[in-house]
Amino acid sequence: MTVLSSKVGRADIVTAMRILVFGAGALGTLYAARLAMAGNEVALLARGRRLDALREGGVRIRPRGSRTLPPAPVHIVERMTDSSHDLVIVLVRRHQADEALRVVTAARDASDVLMMVNVASGYETWRAALGARLLVGFAGAVAGLAPDGVLEYEVAPAVFQPTVLGEPAGPPSERVHRVARALADAGFPVQTRDDMEDWQYAHAAWITPFMLVTAIAARDPDRLEDKALLRLWMGATREGVRLVREARGRVRPRALSLVAGLPAPWLAAISRGVLAPRRMRERFVSAGHDSRTEGLALAAELAAVAAQVGLSLPDLERLRALATA
Ligand SMILES: NC(=O)c1ccc[n+]([C@@H]2O[C@H](COP(=O)([O-])OP(=O)(O)OC[C@H]3O[C@@H](n4cnc5c(N)ncnc54)[C@H](OP(=O)(O)O)[C@@H]3O)[C@@H](O)[C@H]2O)c1
Questions:
Q1: How many structural domains is the chain composed of?
Q2: Does the beta carbon of 294 lie inside 6 Å of ligand 1?
């Protein structure tokens, strides 16, 4: 595994790329802006009201707690042009990925396609649609639109979650290293991996219960005081990790396996500790407004994998029911 540190705003970038970012939500806006600021030629594909807002106000981003940066030099586009890019980065929600892929594959553009989308059922569908064009990765940042229309973000520390990147199988290739360098030059700590599919299964195992809990809290913030809900959250996380071990034969990163194996009272104490600061509870509630549909889609995928290997996920099922109600 290689970790590249980030260098923000390098003027002497030698590997400028032509990149189309598909999806102008939180992370699409962030990655497009920073890649453009680092000297790449970047187009951002948007739709609906977001398209209007970007055309009117430009691409504006702000590191959390800091000042808004000058508008990023990103071209806003409404559809995929037939001109060839070096790379298309797809940054949409899980339940939107199939439609996005249909649009991407319908365009006469032979570029590599980097899917940066949560998934809990492996890469089979993406491989079938994209063949050798497929690259896979996942964001190492948290972002959301602020009330003033500016995209607010935090890049996660490398030790916690760098942007991860790789081939769908096998060791990182030359093209992976090139994209990794472009992302690092744009200010994202990057880790290239040779086990992306395992990594994404494990990520889905813990992020899905998290998303469902935030969705429940978004409707009723008081639920975060409910110990039974926190137990369910931790129980569903353990079930997810057990499922990954059963379905994939290993859990990556290993640390997740260790944490999920802690005694239940310890896990309960950890969840209460995470939620102790008011700021943290507010973030849960605000993340939950956008995560419900994607969390339910991922939970359905985990349930399908569990059925294949003959496992049941009772705590996840209960969380799913609460988030659906
Ligand atoms: N936000 C975070 O902090 C964060 C952190 C880590 C990982 N992630 C993951 O990263 C992925 C992307 O998340 P996100 O937060 O960037 O999602 P998001 O804010 O919901 O953005 C998705 C964007 O893609 C657009 N889109 C979807 N399908 C499209 C299509 N066919 N044509 C044109 N535009 C389309 C959506 O438009 P509409 O709004 O019109 O549907 C929306 O603007 C998800 O898997 C998420 O779980 C997010």
A1: 2
A2: yes
